[in-house]
Each structure stands twice: as C-alpha cells, then as structure tokens.
Amino acid sequence: MPQKSVSHLLATDLDGTFVGEGEELRKLLLHFESLEENVTLVYVTGRHLQSAKQLIDEEGLPFPEVLITDVGSALHDFSDSEIGNEWKAKIEEGWEPERVRAAARQIEGLREQELPVSCRVSFFAEDHTCAEELEKALRSSRIPHQFVYSSGRDVDILPLQAGKGKALSYLIQKKKWQDANVLIAGDSGNDLDMLLLPYPAVIVGNCQEELKNVSGDLIYRAKGHCAAGILEGWKHYFSRTDTRLAK
Ligand code: GLC
Ligand code: MG
Q1: How far is CA 123 from its chain centroid?
Q2: Which ligand has its closest atom nearest to the C-alpha of 43?
Q3: How far away, in angstroms, is 212 Cα from ligand 2 center?
Q4: 44-53 pLDDT, tens per residue?
Q5: How many A from CA of 47 to the centre of ligand 1?
Q6: pTM here?
Q7: CATH 3.90.1070.10 fits 94-158, yes or no
Q8: Rg for the chain, CA atoms, rounded
Q9: pLDDT tens digits for 123-144?
C-alpha cells in the first residue's frame, strides 16, 4: 500500500506522558493545530487494545494514526492491517509463554496480570527482588524473552523481538517515515528502549525513578509534567523554525 507522507510525528506513551495533565494536553494540541504542518500521532502504550481505546474515549484523545499496544507486542495501523499482522507473525517466532508462566510459578511475590492477549505475559511484582529473580530464572532456562520492569511494580515478559522501541522502529521503516521529524515521549521503564532510538526524545518531568538518570544526545529532560513536558521537548527540537530539525 502506498504510504502517506508524514513531516512531523509524535510517538508517545499514554499514561503519565500524553495523559495526566488535561489542561496541558489541551495546550499541546492547540500548539499542533497552530502549526502549518500536520502532526501525525502514534500512541505507544503498555495497555492492551480495549483498555487503550477506553482511555482514548474517556479522555477524549485524538484518535491516532497507529496504536502500538501491549508494550510493543501488538501494532494496530488503522489504515493498513497488514503491518500489524506481519509484526505479530515476526515476534511469535520462538515465543513460549507457558514456559514463562512455569518459571514465574516458582517465584514468590509475583501475581500474573489478567490480560486478553497471548503476545505477552505480565505480572505485578511485590518488590524488585522477585522481579530480578524472574529475570535470572528466564535467562538460566534460556527462555527467549524481553524483560521490562516499570514503576516499581509492573513486570512485562515480551517475545524476544518485541518492545516499544523495536515496534516503533519497525513501523517507521514500514511506513517510510524515516525522514519525518520524529519526537518520542515517555515517563517509565517500558518506554526506555524507544527513548533510546536514534530520534529526538523527551522524558517528562514526572518520570518514574527508573528513568531519573537516563541521558543521551537525543534525550531532552523536560521540567514540565506529562503533556507540558512533551510541548517543552517539541519546542526544544523543532520550534526554532517548526520545520526540519537541523541534522
Ligand atoms: C500498563 C499495562 C500493564 C503493563 C504496564 C507496564 O499499565 O496496563 O499491563 O504491565 O503498563 O508496561
Ligand atoms: Mg507511562
């Protein structure tokens, strides 16, 4: 399918990043409306599809061009379902959720999250120690996976090829958006791999502990919380001319 050309793209986490400060979000969206260029939205969330759609409804968020859910283990392109299907097939290779569950059953302090999906296995961890124990057990049993720990509570075990960063890179490449001005925004551990991609990124001021010491040439640390932080990051990278980022 021919891909629509995109000049500016915001790829953002939802909870604690795009969502959380309603008035600031309104200002961010007004800023986007004031620009000559269209800003394409991609939401990249830890939530599953129904839960993300419910949040979009409840908060009255603009509907995105693409919704990446389940910490990057599912991809929903509303104009081209093929990309999501290909992503599913790609990450399923070597994915053994039952072995993940069996390893987790040996560890105290982990409670599996009830989810309507099979593309990830997630837990609530009582503390850091049991999360680490699970990571060690999965490694020593050579169970292929990606381990993601966020907010001192959530443990997501994803297929090896999944994650927010990998899913977003795949999307950008498939849609031929490499030359767009991309800003990536996040607040917690499940955003880390996408924040480290070679695109401008912003960590919002209210970020979780695990992102407090993250830095990089293309990482702007905002003072503002949630959407206020995104707007700060946007202006930092793009506003001088609101056209192309000097490369
Ligand atoms: C969201 C999801 C949860 C996940 C967490 C961290 O809260 O609802 O399932 O574990 O993000 O990625
Ligand atoms: Mg978040």
Answers
A1: 18
A2: 2
A3: 14
A4: 999 999 999 9
A5: 5
A6: 0.95
A7: yes
A8: 18
A9: 999 999 999 999 999 999 999 9
